[in-house]
Backbone:
């Protein structure tokens, strides 16, 4: 099968959608499918054609017109250029799969309509949980999502919450199939839990991730556990503010690759995902694959990611979050149990579900 995967962003950008797309692409390739990642060319100095870990990538400027009258007037011409660029990519695919609907939806919906190719759209929580709140600011994106959903042969969501939120903009998402994101357990090893109360959190330093809420709650933890340590990985626009907030016991590791996250987890007793809103939470699955208990936010789709294992808590409730952190240190979930849950959500299983959808829409 010839498959185009069309995420909202791809490497060198880093995030859950990028990781999801890469893992699916590599799994499809191992099964003998022909895969191409088609993505918005942003920033513009990135190469038009690329190769990321053996996965071919095509970058096309999928610009929306914005509010300027001149851009609006000339958008049909621009859309024609985008369609021409898509046609130059080669043979028509058997299916096009959008992950996290953004600028790419309009040209790909038009392309699939012209070439009678089935379109699959998966929401990754972008409608309400994007850190930049793009859907709240852009009527064009909301209009494009509604139009794309009507064109799509199948709609899915990474969590029930993400699907319900998408339905507030595009009603066809109501009751859509949930296909959770996953993890590759073979990339993560389980080690013995350290005795010291060390907590780990990592991700982009943006308000959505709730790291400021974690730092505030951790100050209460130190009152009960004076030797507790909180290690925070990642970076972003909130990094300076987080450093200013941090008190005793808070350490910052900087940006982390997969091996860096592995080391962070091995040195920690408990992982924390304190997001104000989280569509799914691959980081929680990574922690569980490493045998670590997780304290997770009840705002979003983390209940789907964790299977309800660990401690779900409202991260904006400082006392409740601190209490959950202390309880997780004192009574961690048995590492084999959390590892087994992560194994049940392997990327291979996720790929199986998506391939079954592709087969259904391609022959339906």
Residues:
């Amino acid at each position: 099968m010839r498959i185009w995967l069309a995420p909202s962003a791809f490497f060198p950008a880093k995030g859950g959608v990028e990781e999801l797309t890469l893992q699916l692409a590599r799994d499809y390739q191992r099964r003998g499918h022909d895969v191409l990642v088609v993505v918005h060319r942003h920033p513009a100095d990135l190469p038009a054609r690329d190769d990321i870990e053996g996965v071919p990538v095509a970058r096309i400027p999928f610009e929306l017109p914005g509010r300027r009258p001149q851009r609006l007037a000339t958008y049909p011409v621009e859309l024609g250029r985008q369609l021409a660029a898509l046609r130059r990519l080669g043979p028509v695919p058997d299916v096009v799969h959008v992950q996290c609907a953004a600028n790419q939806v309009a040209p790909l919906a038009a392309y699939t309509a012209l070439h009678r190719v089935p379109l699959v759209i998966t929401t990754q929580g972008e409608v309400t949980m994007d850190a930049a709140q793009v859907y709240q600011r852009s009527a064009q994106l909301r209009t494009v999502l509604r139009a794309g959903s009507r064109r799509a042969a199948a709609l899915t969501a990474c969590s029930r919450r993400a699907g319900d939120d998408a339905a507030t903009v595009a009603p066809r998402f109501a009751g859509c199939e949930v296909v959770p994101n996953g993890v590759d357990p073979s990339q993560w090893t389980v080690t013995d839990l350290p005795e010291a109360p060390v907590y780990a959190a990592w991700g982009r330093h943006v308000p959505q991730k709730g790291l400021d809420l974690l730092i505030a709650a951790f100050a209460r933890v130190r009152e009960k556990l004076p030797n507790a340590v909180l290690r925070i990985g990642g970076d972003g626009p909130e990094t300076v503010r987080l450093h200013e907030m941090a008190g005793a016991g808070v350490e910052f590791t900087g940006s982390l690759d997969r091996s860096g996250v592995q080391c962070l987890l091995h040195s920690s007793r408990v992982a924390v995902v304190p997001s104000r809103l989280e569509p799914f939470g691959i980081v929680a699955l990574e922690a569980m694959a490493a045998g670590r208990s997780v304290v997770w936010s009840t705002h979003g789709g983390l209940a789907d990611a964790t299977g309800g294992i660990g401690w779900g808590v409202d991260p904006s409730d400082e006392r409740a979050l601190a209490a959950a952190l202390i309880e997780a240190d004192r009574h961690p979930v048995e590492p084999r149990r959390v590892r087994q849950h992560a194994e049940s959500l392997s990327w291979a299983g996720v790929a199986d579900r998506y391939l079954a959808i592709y087969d259904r829409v391609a022959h339906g």
